[in-house]
Amino acid sequence: MAFITDTRNASLSLGDRFANFRANLAEATAKRKIYKTTLTELSALSSRDLADLGLHRSQIKTVAYEAAYGN
């Protein structure tokens, strides 16, 4: 017969969970700011400037997302 024992010794306190939540929120906010800044700056460029960078207007959102989230 087999037995499974779940041994979770270190559960996070409420303060630790709140600190993790704040850290995750701060990270998400920073990434969103990078996305919006990149999107705004690339959108402000002329089509010729974008072509010099090897980009088309349809790629702006993708490039901004990759700059912020790294995917």
UniProtKB/TrEMBL annotation:
Residues 25-60 form the YjiS-like domain. Pfam families: YjiS-like (PF06568). This is DUF1127 domain-containing protein. It comes from Yoonia rhodophyticola. The lineage of its organism: Bacteria, Pseudomonadati, Pseudomonadota, Alphaproteobacteria, Rhodobacterales.
